[in-house]
Amino acid sequence: MLERPKRKNPVLRTRLPTLPPAARSRIALGLTAAAALGRFELQQCRDCGTVQYPPREACQKCLSIRLDWKAQPQDGELLSDTVLHHSNDLFFRERLPWRLGLVKLACGPTVVAHLHSSISAAPTQVVVAAKLDRAGQAVLVATPSKETNMAEDRQLREFTCDPKFRKVLVTDGKTALGQAIVKALAKAGADLIWVGHAEPWKKFAGFDELQALKQVTLLPLDVTDSKNVREVAAEIGGKVDILINNAEYHRAYGIGNRSGVETARSEMDVNYFGLLRLAQEFGPAMRSRGADGLASAVAWVNVLSIYALANFPPHGTFSASKAAAHSLAQCLRAELRPAGVRVINLFPGPIDDEWNQLLPPPKVAPAALAGALVKALQEGVEDVYPGDVAQEWLARWRDNPKALEKELST
Amino acid sequence: MRRGYEGVVVAAPVTIPYVRYSIRAAHWWLARALSELISRSKLKKDDIDGLSVSSFTLAPDTAIGLTQHLGLSPRWLDHVPFGGASGVVALRRAARAVQAGDADVVACIAGDTNHVDSFRLTLANFSQFARDAVYPYGAGGPNASFAFLTAYYMRTYGARREDFGKLCVAQRANALKFPAALFKKPLTLEEYIAARPIAEPLHLFDCVMPCAGADGFLVTTEDRAKRMGVPHARLLGTVERHNAFASDPVQMRTLDKGDLYEQAGVGPKDMSVVETYDDYPVISLMQLEDLGFCAKGDGPRFVREHTFTWDGTFPLNTSGGQLSVGQAGAAGGFLGMVEAIRQLTGQAEGRQVRDAKLALVSGFGMINFDRGLGSGAAILSC
Question: Could you tell me which chain B residue has the CA closest to the CA of A20?
Answer without folding.
Answer: B136
